[in-house]
Amino acid sequence: MALVPTAFRRDAAVLLAGLAAIAAATDLLRDIPHISTTTVALVLLLIVLGTGTFARLRIAVIASIVSTLAFNFFFLQPVGTFAIADPQNWVVLGVYLTVAVVASKFSAKAQDRARMHLAETLLASLSHDMRTPLTSVRTAVENLRRPLDDEAREAQAAAATAELERLTLLLEHMLDMAQIDAGAVRVERQWVAPADVVDAAVAHVRHALAGHPLVVEAAADREVQIDPRLTSAALSHMLENAARYSPAGGRILIAGHVGAEGLHVSVTDHGPGLDPSETERLFDRFYRGDAAKRTMHGTGMGLAIARGLLTAAGGSAWAENAPGAGARFSFTVPGPVRRAAVPQ
Fold it and tell me: What's the pTM value of the predicted model, to 2 decimals?
């Protein structure tokens, strides 16, 4: 139910931006002497197409109608009225409105197709990622129904628990993505030290980090006012990614400090590193590099969720290759800074 008002707010924001752009363009074009109606039509049509790119069809149609009225009132003779003196201008106006509406419709269809390609990709990935742990849990439960010694029973129980935690994380990913898409991520700022953010993130994905030595360099002498929940959740996705692409026993370095700009955290692994041609796309939703597709399954949601959460908190994230190591994922979250309170 919360998605409906959010969608309306998004549409309203895009419509207001489109109408403001039409008004600004109209005002600017009127100041240009002897401007041709062709130029005016192309500029206004560009704004309509931009509106259609970010909103649903009905919003683009509204922008098309408003731009047509502005085109008529301010640029077609007689200027300043909605009357049209030259019959040819009726043709111009009709063609403009038709092109604007049709172009908006094509833009909306393109958005729908893109969503359908993303949905198919997500469904295929999730179906595999959910089927595997479910199969493992079922097998472990069936084995537990048979006579087993204590060691074998403990092993089967541990396997079932690990797969259930994996399913839990997958569902959390889906919920996080839904919140980001709905614009429903709440920001609640608190004073927190880098060490607290790192500790919370490590605890959340401790099972994924098993077998990877952790080196933590996180300060506790200074605090920053940020949302610790969003920040630690974003960090947990980066840690999970580092563990996934690091070899067994590969060390993971977590560094966090507070600077003048706010919180800065980085995660460095000792995996194969990043393909420079793919660095810019790593935070795109559902994107997985060529090497990752060949070696392991995944949804490609983790880093996209991390960036979404950080963006909601006012931060930014990026990726690079670390000299002498593998990949390094970093982020900053701005906020007021102070010395850590001394415990009484």
Answer: 0.57
